[in-house]
DNA sequence: GTCTATACTAAGATAGAC
DNA sequence: GTCTATCTTAGTATAGAC
Protein backbone atom coordinates (compact mmCIF):
# COMPACT_ATOMS: atom_id res chain seq x y z
CA UNK A 1 0.00 0.00 0.00
CA UNK A 2 3.03 2.24 -0.32
CA UNK A 3 1.60 4.15 -3.25
CA UNK A 4 -1.72 4.66 -1.50
CA UNK A 5 -3.77 3.48 -4.48
CA UNK A 6 -6.30 0.73 -3.99
CA UNK A 7 -5.60 -1.65 -6.87
CA UNK A 8 -9.12 -2.86 -7.77
CA UNK A 9 -8.12 -5.32 -10.48
CA UNK A 10 -6.15 -3.44 -13.09
CA UNK A 11 -4.09 -5.65 -15.33
CA UNK A 12 -0.42 -4.89 -15.23
CA UNK A 13 1.37 -4.34 -18.49
CA UNK A 14 2.99 -7.74 -18.26
CA UNK A 15 -0.36 -9.39 -17.66
CA UNK A 16 -1.86 -7.63 -20.66
CA UNK A 17 1.05 -8.72 -22.79
CA UNK A 18 0.87 -12.32 -21.70
CA UNK A 19 -2.88 -12.50 -22.24
CA UNK A 20 -2.31 -11.16 -25.73
CA UNK A 21 0.44 -13.67 -26.40
CA UNK A 22 -1.83 -16.50 -25.30
CA UNK A 23 -4.81 -15.31 -27.33
CA UNK A 24 -2.63 -14.94 -30.40
CA UNK A 25 -1.20 -18.42 -30.01
CA UNK A 26 -4.66 -19.84 -29.34
CA UNK A 27 -5.96 -18.20 -32.50
CA UNK A 28 -3.22 -19.96 -34.46
CA UNK A 29 -4.14 -23.33 -33.04
CA UNK A 30 -7.94 -23.11 -32.79
CA UNK A 31 -8.30 -21.69 -36.30
CA UNK A 32 -6.49 -24.69 -37.72
CA UNK A 33 -7.84 -27.53 -35.61
CA UNK A 34 -11.14 -26.35 -34.21
CA UNK A 35 -11.93 -26.40 -30.53
CA UNK A 36 -11.89 -30.12 -29.89
CA UNK A 37 -8.93 -30.74 -32.13
CA UNK A 38 -6.73 -28.24 -30.31
CA UNK A 39 -4.75 -28.87 -27.14
CA UNK A 40 -3.39 -26.64 -24.42
CA UNK A 41 0.01 -28.17 -25.09
CA UNK A 42 -0.04 -26.86 -28.65
CA UNK A 43 -1.12 -23.41 -27.53
CA UNK A 44 1.50 -23.32 -24.78
CA UNK A 45 4.15 -24.39 -27.27
CA UNK A 46 3.24 -21.62 -29.73
CA UNK A 47 2.93 -19.04 -26.96
CA UNK A 48 6.29 -20.04 -25.47
CA UNK A 49 4.71 -20.47 -22.06
CA UNK A 50 4.11 -23.44 -19.81
CA UNK A 51 0.73 -25.11 -19.72
CA UNK A 52 0.03 -24.23 -16.08
CA UNK A 53 0.95 -20.66 -16.85
CA UNK A 54 -1.75 -20.52 -19.50
CA UNK A 55 -4.21 -21.58 -16.87
CA UNK A 56 -3.00 -18.85 -14.59
CA UNK A 57 -4.24 -16.28 -17.10
CA UNK A 58 -7.37 -18.08 -18.22
CA UNK A 59 -9.51 -20.41 -16.13
CA UNK A 60 -9.85 -23.06 -18.86
CA UNK A 61 -9.37 -23.97 -22.50
CA UNK A 62 -13.04 -23.19 -23.04
CA UNK A 63 -12.52 -19.67 -21.64
CA UNK A 64 -9.70 -18.90 -24.08
CA UNK A 65 -11.85 -20.01 -26.98
CA UNK A 66 -14.87 -18.05 -25.77
CA UNK A 67 -12.75 -14.91 -25.44
CA UNK A 68 -11.51 -15.28 -29.02
CA UNK A 69 -15.03 -15.76 -30.39
CA UNK A 70 -16.47 -12.76 -28.61
CA UNK A 71 -13.59 -10.55 -29.77
CA UNK A 72 -14.18 -11.88 -33.28
CA UNK A 73 -17.87 -11.22 -33.69
CA UNK A 74 -17.64 -7.45 -33.49
CA UNK A 75 -14.78 -7.20 -35.96
CA UNK A 76 -16.66 -9.51 -38.26
CA UNK A 77 -19.86 -7.48 -38.39
CA UNK A 78 -18.28 -4.05 -38.60
CA UNK A 79 -18.01 -3.91 -42.41
CA UNK A 80 -21.71 -4.74 -42.81
CA UNK A 81 -22.68 -2.18 -40.15
CA UNK A 82 -20.88 0.42 -42.21
CA UNK A 83 -23.17 -0.10 -45.21
CA UNK A 84 -24.92 3.26 -45.41
CA UNK A 85 -28.58 3.43 -46.56
CA UNK A 86 -28.01 7.08 -47.53
CA UNK A 87 -24.99 6.34 -49.71
CA UNK A 88 -24.79 5.57 -53.40
CA UNK A 89 -25.98 1.91 -53.67
CA UNK A 90 -23.35 0.39 -55.95
CA UNK A 91 -20.52 2.25 -54.21
CA UNK A 92 -21.74 1.14 -50.79
CA UNK A 93 -21.95 -2.51 -51.82
CA UNK A 94 -18.62 -2.49 -53.63
CA UNK A 95 -17.03 -0.92 -50.55
CA UNK A 96 -18.51 -3.67 -48.43
CA UNK A 97 -17.11 -6.34 -50.74
CA UNK A 98 -13.69 -4.71 -50.60
CA UNK A 99 -13.69 -4.37 -46.80
CA UNK A 100 -14.76 -7.99 -46.44
CA UNK A 101 -12.01 -9.19 -48.77
CA UNK A 102 -9.49 -7.13 -46.81
CA UNK A 103 -10.63 -8.87 -43.64
CA UNK A 104 -9.96 -12.22 -45.32
CA UNK A 105 -6.52 -11.07 -46.41
CA UNK A 106 -5.49 -9.42 -43.16
CA UNK A 107 -7.23 -11.73 -40.68
CA UNK A 108 -7.38 -15.18 -42.26
CA UNK A 109 -7.04 -16.91 -38.89
CA UNK A 110 -10.13 -15.14 -37.59
CA UNK A 111 -12.01 -16.21 -40.72
CA UNK A 112 -11.00 -19.82 -40.22
CA UNK A 113 -11.85 -19.72 -36.52
CA UNK A 114 -15.32 -18.61 -37.50
CA UNK A 115 -15.59 -21.21 -40.26
CA UNK A 116 -14.59 -23.96 -37.85
CA UNK A 117 -17.23 -22.87 -35.38
CA UNK A 118 -19.96 -22.85 -38.03
CA UNK A 119 -18.87 -26.20 -39.49
CA UNK A 120 -19.22 -27.69 -36.04
CA UNK A 121 -22.80 -26.51 -35.91
CA UNK A 122 -22.08 -23.18 -34.17
CA UNK A 123 -22.63 -24.60 -30.66
CA UNK A 124 -21.10 -21.55 -29.01
CA UNK A 125 -22.43 -18.74 -31.19
CA UNK A 126 -25.83 -19.95 -32.38
CA UNK A 127 -27.43 -17.38 -30.11
CA UNK A 128 -25.48 -14.56 -31.72
CA UNK A 129 -26.31 -15.85 -35.20
CA UNK A 130 -30.04 -15.92 -34.53
CA UNK A 131 -29.99 -12.67 -32.59
CA UNK A 132 -27.40 -10.02 -33.39
CA UNK A 133 -26.39 -11.31 -36.80
CA UNK A 134 -29.89 -12.01 -38.10
CA UNK A 135 -31.11 -8.61 -36.92
CA UNK A 136 -28.27 -6.80 -38.67
CA UNK A 137 -28.66 -8.79 -41.89
CA UNK A 138 -32.43 -8.27 -41.93
CA UNK A 139 -31.91 -4.54 -41.49
CA UNK A 140 -29.39 -4.30 -44.31
CA UNK A 141 -31.51 -6.60 -46.48
CA UNK A 142 -34.27 -4.02 -46.23
CA UNK A 143 -31.88 -1.37 -47.44
CA UNK A 144 -30.96 -3.54 -50.41
CA UNK A 145 -34.63 -4.20 -51.13
CA UNK A 146 -35.37 -0.48 -51.12
CA UNK A 147 -32.53 0.19 -53.52
CA UNK A 148 -33.82 -2.54 -55.83
CA UNK A 149 -37.39 -1.22 -55.62
CA UNK A 150 -36.09 2.21 -56.61
CA UNK A 151 -34.36 0.65 -59.61
CA UNK A 152 -30.93 1.68 -58.36
CA UNK A 153 -29.58 -1.91 -58.31
CA UNK A 154 -30.76 -5.16 -59.86
CA UNK A 155 -33.68 -6.93 -58.21
CA UNK A 156 -32.01 -9.79 -56.33
CA UNK A 157 -32.93 -11.68 -53.16
CA UNK A 158 -31.10 -9.52 -50.62
CA UNK A 159 -30.19 -12.24 -48.14
CA UNK A 160 -28.62 -14.37 -50.82
CA UNK A 161 -26.79 -11.36 -52.20
CA UNK A 162 -25.22 -10.93 -48.77
CA UNK A 163 -24.44 -14.65 -48.55
CA UNK A 164 -22.70 -14.44 -51.91
CA UNK A 165 -20.45 -11.67 -50.61
CA UNK A 166 -19.57 -13.72 -47.56
CA UNK A 167 -18.98 -16.89 -49.57
CA UNK A 168 -16.80 -15.27 -52.23
CA UNK A 169 -14.63 -13.24 -49.89
CA UNK A 170 -14.21 -15.78 -47.08
CA UNK A 171 -13.35 -18.51 -49.57
CA UNK A 172 -9.96 -16.88 -50.14
CA UNK A 173 -9.11 -17.13 -46.43
CA UNK A 174 -10.78 -20.42 -45.54
CA UNK A 175 -9.67 -22.34 -48.63
CA UNK A 176 -6.36 -20.53 -48.97
CA UNK A 177 -4.25 -23.66 -49.32
CA UNK A 178 -6.51 -24.99 -52.05
CA UNK A 179 -6.53 -21.69 -53.92
CA UNK A 180 -2.73 -21.54 -53.85
CA UNK A 181 -2.34 -25.21 -54.76
CA UNK A 182 -4.57 -24.80 -57.81
CA UNK A 183 -3.18 -21.45 -58.96
CA UNK A 184 0.40 -22.59 -58.54
CA UNK A 185 3.31 -20.23 -57.83
CA UNK A 186 3.56 -16.69 -59.16
CA UNK A 187 0.06 -15.58 -58.23
CA UNK A 188 -1.30 -13.03 -55.78
CA UNK A 189 -4.67 -14.55 -54.91
CA UNK A 190 -6.04 -11.52 -53.11
CA UNK A 191 -5.05 -9.00 -55.77
CA UNK A 192 -6.63 -11.17 -58.44
CA UNK A 193 -9.71 -11.76 -56.30
CA UNK A 194 -10.09 -8.02 -55.77
CA UNK A 195 -10.23 -7.36 -59.50
CA UNK A 196 -12.45 -10.36 -60.20
CA UNK A 197 -14.98 -9.57 -57.48
CA UNK A 198 -15.10 -5.96 -58.62
CA UNK A 199 -16.12 -7.17 -62.07
CA UNK A 200 -18.51 -9.80 -60.77
CA UNK A 201 -20.50 -7.54 -58.48
CA UNK A 202 -20.61 -4.63 -60.91
CA UNK A 203 -22.19 -6.87 -63.52
CA UNK A 204 -24.50 -8.49 -61.00
CA UNK A 205 -25.77 -5.23 -59.51
CA UNK A 206 -26.39 -3.44 -62.79
CA UNK A 207 -30.19 -3.03 -63.00
CA UNK B 1 -10.97 -76.46 -47.80
CA UNK B 2 -14.21 -78.43 -48.00
CA UNK B 3 -15.61 -76.29 -50.79
CA UNK B 4 -12.40 -76.43 -52.75
CA UNK B 5 -12.32 -72.68 -53.36
CA UNK B 6 -9.38 -70.65 -52.24
CA UNK B 7 -10.97 -67.67 -50.48
CA UNK B 8 -8.54 -64.90 -51.42
CA UNK B 9 -10.13 -62.08 -49.42
CA UNK B 10 -13.70 -61.56 -50.59
CA UNK B 11 -15.79 -59.51 -48.20
CA UNK B 12 -18.92 -61.24 -47.01
CA UNK B 13 -22.19 -59.36 -47.25
CA UNK B 14 -22.18 -58.75 -43.50
CA UNK B 15 -18.65 -57.37 -43.69
CA UNK B 16 -19.60 -55.04 -46.52
CA UNK B 17 -22.62 -53.84 -44.58
CA UNK B 18 -20.67 -53.22 -41.39
CA UNK B 19 -17.93 -51.39 -43.23
CA UNK B 20 -20.60 -49.19 -44.77
CA UNK B 21 -22.23 -48.56 -41.41
CA UNK B 22 -18.90 -47.53 -39.92
CA UNK B 23 -17.99 -45.24 -42.82
CA UNK B 24 -21.38 -43.58 -42.67
CA UNK B 25 -21.10 -42.98 -38.94
CA UNK B 26 -17.53 -41.74 -39.34
CA UNK B 27 -18.66 -39.30 -42.00
CA UNK B 28 -21.18 -37.89 -39.54
CA UNK B 29 -18.57 -37.39 -36.88
CA UNK B 30 -15.50 -36.36 -38.91
CA UNK B 31 -17.49 -33.85 -40.97
CA UNK B 32 -18.56 -32.06 -37.82
CA UNK B 33 -15.45 -32.21 -35.69
CA UNK B 34 -12.56 -32.70 -38.06
CA UNK B 35 -10.07 -35.52 -37.69
CA UNK B 36 -8.48 -34.56 -34.40
CA UNK B 37 -11.73 -33.46 -32.81
CA UNK B 38 -13.42 -36.80 -33.48
CA UNK B 39 -13.17 -39.91 -31.33
CA UNK B 40 -13.70 -43.59 -31.97
CA UNK B 41 -16.19 -43.57 -29.11
CA UNK B 42 -18.39 -41.11 -30.98
CA UNK B 43 -18.16 -43.07 -34.20
CA UNK B 44 -18.90 -46.36 -32.42
CA UNK B 45 -21.87 -44.75 -30.69
CA UNK B 46 -23.37 -43.49 -33.97
CA UNK B 47 -22.63 -46.78 -35.74
CA UNK B 48 -24.17 -48.81 -32.95
CA UNK B 49 -21.07 -50.98 -32.70
CA UNK B 50 -18.45 -51.45 -30.04
CA UNK B 51 -15.17 -49.62 -30.29
CA UNK B 52 -13.06 -52.79 -30.64
CA UNK B 53 -15.42 -53.94 -33.36
CA UNK B 54 -14.66 -50.79 -35.36
CA UNK B 55 -11.02 -51.69 -35.16
CA UNK B 56 -11.76 -55.16 -36.41
CA UNK B 57 -12.95 -53.65 -39.70
CA UNK B 58 -10.41 -50.86 -39.96
CA UNK B 59 -6.85 -50.91 -38.65
CA UNK B 60 -7.05 -47.42 -37.12
CA UNK B 61 -8.94 -44.17 -36.83
CA UNK B 62 -6.58 -42.75 -39.43
CA UNK B 63 -7.52 -45.53 -41.85
CA UNK B 64 -11.23 -44.78 -41.59
CA UNK B 65 -10.59 -41.14 -42.31
CA UNK B 66 -8.30 -41.89 -45.22
CA UNK B 67 -10.89 -44.19 -46.75
CA UNK B 68 -13.54 -41.47 -46.55
CA UNK B 69 -11.28 -38.88 -48.16
CA UNK B 70 -10.30 -41.10 -51.06
CA UNK B 71 -13.92 -42.04 -51.72
CA UNK B 72 -14.78 -38.35 -51.59
CA UNK B 73 -12.30 -36.95 -54.08
CA UNK B 74 -13.71 -38.71 -57.12
CA UNK B 75 -17.30 -37.74 -56.37
CA UNK B 76 -16.16 -34.22 -55.82
CA UNK B 77 -14.41 -33.81 -59.15
CA UNK B 78 -16.99 -35.58 -61.32
CA UNK B 79 -19.14 -32.51 -62.03
CA UNK B 80 -16.14 -30.54 -63.28
CA UNK B 81 -14.95 -33.49 -65.37
CA UNK B 82 -18.33 -33.45 -67.09
CA UNK B 83 -17.84 -29.90 -68.39
CA UNK B 84 -17.75 -30.49 -72.15
CA UNK B 85 -15.51 -28.29 -74.35
CA UNK B 86 -17.73 -29.16 -77.32
CA UNK B 87 -20.95 -28.09 -75.62
CA UNK B 88 -22.68 -24.73 -75.57
CA UNK B 89 -20.60 -22.59 -73.16
CA UNK B 90 -23.27 -21.00 -70.99
CA UNK B 91 -25.29 -24.22 -70.81
CA UNK B 92 -22.22 -26.20 -69.82
CA UNK B 93 -21.28 -23.78 -67.05
CA UNK B 94 -24.81 -23.45 -65.74
CA UNK B 95 -25.08 -27.23 -65.66
CA UNK B 96 -21.87 -27.36 -63.68
CA UNK B 97 -23.20 -24.84 -61.18
CA UNK B 98 -26.41 -26.83 -60.80
CA UNK B 99 -24.62 -30.15 -60.34
CA UNK B 100 -22.32 -28.62 -57.77
CA UNK B 101 -25.23 -27.13 -55.83
CA UNK B 102 -26.95 -30.51 -55.90
CA UNK B 103 -23.84 -32.06 -54.40
CA UNK B 104 -24.02 -29.54 -51.56
CA UNK B 105 -27.70 -30.29 -51.04
CA UNK B 106 -27.46 -34.07 -51.25
CA UNK B 107 -24.03 -34.60 -49.70
CA UNK B 108 -23.50 -31.81 -47.17
CA UNK B 109 -21.46 -34.05 -44.89
CA UNK B 110 -19.01 -34.77 -47.67
CA UNK B 111 -18.71 -31.05 -48.34
CA UNK B 112 -17.97 -30.35 -44.68
CA UNK B 113 -15.47 -33.20 -44.47
CA UNK B 114 -13.62 -31.61 -47.35
CA UNK B 115 -13.89 -28.13 -45.83
CA UNK B 116 -12.49 -29.40 -42.54
CA UNK B 117 -9.56 -30.97 -44.30
CA UNK B 118 -8.74 -27.77 -46.21
CA UNK B 119 -9.15 -25.58 -43.14
CA UNK B 120 -6.61 -27.76 -41.37
CA UNK B 121 -4.13 -27.09 -44.14
CA UNK B 122 -5.01 -30.16 -46.24
CA UNK B 123 -2.31 -32.34 -44.62
CA UNK B 124 -3.76 -35.53 -46.11
CA UNK B 125 -4.80 -34.36 -49.57
CA UNK B 126 -2.30 -31.68 -50.48
CA UNK B 127 -0.79 -34.05 -53.01
CA UNK B 128 -4.15 -34.54 -54.72
CA UNK B 129 -4.78 -30.78 -54.73
CA UNK B 130 -1.46 -30.01 -56.40
CA UNK B 131 -1.69 -32.99 -58.75
CA UNK B 132 -5.05 -34.31 -59.83
CA UNK B 133 -7.12 -31.25 -58.92
CA UNK B 134 -4.75 -28.63 -60.34
CA UNK B 135 -4.41 -30.60 -63.58
CA UNK B 136 -8.16 -30.87 -64.01
CA UNK B 137 -8.78 -27.21 -63.19
CA UNK B 138 -6.00 -26.06 -65.52
CA UNK B 139 -7.51 -28.14 -68.32
CA UNK B 140 -11.01 -26.73 -67.82
CA UNK B 141 -9.61 -23.23 -67.37
CA UNK B 142 -8.23 -23.52 -70.89
CA UNK B 143 -11.66 -24.42 -72.15
CA UNK B 144 -13.11 -21.34 -70.45
CA UNK B 145 -10.33 -19.18 -71.89
CA UNK B 146 -11.07 -20.47 -75.38
CA UNK B 147 -14.73 -19.71 -74.99
CA UNK B 148 -13.93 -16.20 -73.80
CA UNK B 149 -11.47 -15.65 -76.66
CA UNK B 150 -14.21 -16.68 -79.08
CA UNK B 151 -16.53 -14.14 -77.49
CA UNK B 152 -18.97 -16.81 -76.38
CA UNK B 153 -18.74 -15.87 -72.68
CA UNK B 154 -17.44 -12.82 -70.84
CA UNK B 155 -13.69 -12.45 -70.49
CA UNK B 156 -13.04 -13.46 -66.89
CA UNK B 157 -10.04 -15.01 -65.11
CA UNK B 158 -10.97 -18.68 -65.53
CA UNK B 159 -9.48 -20.00 -62.29
CA UNK B 160 -11.32 -17.43 -60.23
CA UNK B 161 -14.52 -18.14 -62.11
CA UNK B 162 -14.20 -21.75 -61.01
CA UNK B 163 -13.37 -20.69 -57.44
CA UNK B 164 -16.51 -18.57 -57.41
CA UNK B 165 -18.62 -21.60 -58.35
CA UNK B 166 -17.04 -23.63 -55.58
CA UNK B 167 -17.41 -20.85 -53.01
CA UNK B 168 -21.04 -20.05 -53.81
CA UNK B 169 -22.29 -23.61 -53.96
CA UNK B 170 -20.30 -25.08 -51.07
CA UNK B 171 -21.28 -22.18 -48.83
CA UNK B 172 -24.81 -23.57 -48.60
CA UNK B 173 -23.53 -26.89 -47.24
CA UNK B 174 -20.62 -25.71 -45.12
CA UNK B 175 -22.37 -22.71 -43.57
CA UNK B 176 -25.78 -24.34 -43.49
CA UNK B 177 -26.53 -23.51 -39.87
CA UNK B 178 -25.65 -19.86 -40.42
CA UNK B 179 -27.73 -19.64 -43.58
CA UNK B 180 -30.74 -21.10 -41.78
CA UNK B 181 -30.20 -18.97 -38.67
CA UNK B 182 -30.13 -15.79 -40.75
CA UNK B 183 -32.99 -16.68 -43.10
CA UNK B 184 -35.19 -17.84 -40.23
CA UNK B 185 -37.96 -20.41 -40.62
CA UNK B 186 -40.08 -20.83 -43.73
CA UNK B 187 -37.25 -20.83 -46.25
CA UNK B 188 -35.85 -23.45 -48.59
CA UNK B 189 -32.20 -22.37 -48.84
CA UNK B 190 -31.30 -24.65 -51.74
CA UNK B 191 -34.32 -23.78 -53.87
CA UNK B 192 -33.63 -20.08 -53.37
CA UNK B 193 -29.93 -20.57 -54.01
CA UNK B 194 -30.67 -22.40 -57.23
CA UNK B 195 -32.68 -19.48 -58.59
CA UNK B 196 -30.21 -16.88 -57.32
CA UNK B 197 -27.13 -18.60 -58.73
CA UNK B 198 -28.89 -19.07 -62.07
CA UNK B 199 -29.39 -15.31 -62.23
CA UNK B 200 -25.93 -14.49 -60.95
CA UNK B 201 -24.00 -16.63 -63.41
CA UNK B 202 -26.15 -15.74 -66.40
CA UNK B 203 -25.44 -12.07 -65.82
CA UNK B 204 -21.78 -12.72 -65.11
CA UNK B 205 -21.18 -14.85 -68.19
CA UNK B 206 -22.96 -12.60 -70.68
CA UNK B 207 -20.20 -11.25 -72.98
C1' DG C 1 -17.02 -61.69 -35.47
C1' DT C 2 -18.05 -59.53 -31.31
C1' DC C 3 -17.54 -58.59 -26.64
C1' DT C 4 -15.16 -57.38 -21.83
C1' DA C 5 -11.17 -56.06 -19.84
C1' DT C 6 -7.18 -53.57 -20.01
C1' DA C 7 -2.73 -51.47 -21.45
C1' DC C 8 -0.89 -47.18 -22.63
C1' DT C 9 -0.79 -42.38 -23.96
C1' DA C 10 -2.47 -37.73 -24.25
C1' DA C 11 -4.94 -34.01 -22.34
C1' DG C 12 -7.26 -30.75 -19.04
C1' DA C 13 -6.61 -29.08 -14.78
C1' DT C 14 -4.62 -28.47 -9.88
C1' DA C 15 -1.11 -28.44 -5.85
C1' DG C 16 2.52 -26.59 -4.01
C1' DA C 17 7.51 -25.23 -4.20
C1' DC C 18 10.14 -21.27 -5.50
C1' DG D 1 3.98 -15.23 -11.61
C1' DT D 2 6.10 -19.26 -13.05
C1' DC D 3 7.65 -23.79 -12.64
C1' DT D 4 7.71 -29.16 -11.61
C1' DA D 5 5.05 -32.75 -10.31
C1' DT D 6 0.81 -34.93 -10.28
C1' DC D 7 -4.17 -36.13 -10.35
C1' DT D 8 -7.93 -37.61 -13.36
C1' DT D 9 -10.27 -38.46 -17.35
C1' DA D 10 -10.61 -39.54 -22.04
C1' DG D 11 -8.89 -41.71 -25.98
C1' DT D 12 -6.42 -45.17 -29.21
C1' DA D 13 -5.44 -49.59 -29.51
C1' DT D 14 -4.76 -54.60 -28.14
C1' DA D 15 -5.49 -59.24 -25.66
C1' DG D 16 -8.13 -62.83 -25.04
C1' DA D 17 -12.66 -65.01 -23.78
C1' DC D 18 -16.79 -66.48 -26.05
From TrEMBL, chains A, B:
It comes from the Bacteria. InterPro entries: Homeodomain-like_sf, HTH-type_TetR-like_transc_reg, HTH_TetR, Tet_transcr_reg_TetR-rel_C_sf, Tscrpt_reg_YcdC_C. It holds the Pfam family TetR_C_3. Residues 16-76 form the HTH tetR-type domain. Residues 39-58 bind DNA. Keywords: DNA-binding. The keyword rRNA processing does not apply. This is TetR family transcriptional regulator C-terminal domain-containing protein. It comes from Albidovulum litorale.
